[in-house]
Q: What sequence folds into this?
């Protein structure tokens, strides 16, 4: 039994066909088929049922494949450790963070890493909506701090960082805030909704909480959005930590809108599995793993 055979098995299951696995592994289909046949001969049972167009795992294959996934995870971990051990200190670590998340939870981590590795330039940028994910998948970020919306889970590793709540609000003088109770969608369509544009492009659009049929103003960041809402020119959702003072002082008031409850989102540290970690990135990742849950 060889690692290449296990990798071929995983590729067939992931792609659904022997040809798809061959394309994924950049091998001839005959070579992939030969690897699986040798593995089946060694095991003494068929891994796949081949009575249909797409091969499916046999009952024995299902059990065996579960163990294979564990082995491949361990191999990936060993490769990452080895890459870190032979690597030098990275000249730069790029981190992209969702603008909905406060910096406070990660500042101590970045401060400690900066002191431990003074030769590494830490580049930290904030992005809107799908912006962090776009940077990660395009290879422009080593690590992102973001939610899991649209994230290809099979291709990444994640660690929980915290949670944020986005709440719809308006100024106390805004018409929809005059009286208590839930505002209907029909009523809210008569008011301007202020939204933040994403920075991930159309391939990573994560627009949500948009009221259809209503007027919208689009801004580039949450500070602009908050200023417009405070001025009484519209309503919209803002992360609670970005408007704590305004909520306490009454400059902003929560809105109860039909179909738009406060949205609680879990935030994660996310890295690509296929990108080996160097010493600095390994240190950052270890610190995130030690964060209190």
A:
């Amino acid at each position: 039994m060889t690692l290449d055979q296990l990798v071929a098995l995983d590729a067939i299951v992931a792609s659904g066909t022997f040809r798809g696995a061959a394309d994924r592994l950049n091998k001839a289909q005959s070579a992939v088929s030969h690897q699986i046949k040798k593995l089946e001969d060694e095991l003494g049972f068929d891994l796949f049922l081949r009575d249909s167009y797409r091969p499916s795992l046999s009952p024995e294959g299902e059990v065996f494949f579960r163990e294979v996934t564990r082995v491949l995870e361990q191999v990936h971990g060993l490769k990452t450790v080895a890459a870190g051990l032979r690597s030098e200190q990275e000249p730069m670590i790029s981190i992209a963070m969702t603008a909905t998340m406060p910096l406070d939870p990660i500042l101590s981590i970045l401060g400690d890493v900066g002191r431990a590795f003074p030769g590494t330039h830490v580049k930290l940028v904030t992005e809107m909506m799908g912006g962090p994910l776009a940077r990660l998948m395009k290879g422009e970020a080593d690590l992102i701090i973001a939610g899991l919306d649209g994230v290809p889970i099979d291709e990444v590793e994640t660690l929980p960082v915290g949670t944020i709540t986005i709440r719809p609000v308006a100024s106390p003088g805004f018409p929809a805030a005059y009286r208590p109770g839930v505002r209907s969608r029909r009523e809210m369509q008569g008011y301007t909704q202020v939204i933040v544009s994403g920075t991930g492009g159309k391939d990573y659009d994560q627009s949500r909480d948009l009221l259809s049929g209503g007027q919208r103003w689009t801004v580039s960041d949450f500070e602009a959005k908050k200023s417009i809402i405070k001025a009484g020119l519209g309503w919209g959702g803002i992360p609670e930590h970005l408007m704590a003072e305004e909520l306490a002082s009454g400059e902003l008031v929560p809105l109860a809108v039909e179909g738009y409850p406060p949205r609680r989102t879990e935030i994660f540290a996310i890295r690509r599995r296929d990108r080996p970690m160097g010493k600095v990135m390994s240190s950052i990742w270890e610190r995130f793993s030690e964060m209190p849950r």
Summary: Residues 3-86 form a domain with the Arc Repressor Mutant, subunit A fold (CATH 1.10.10.10).
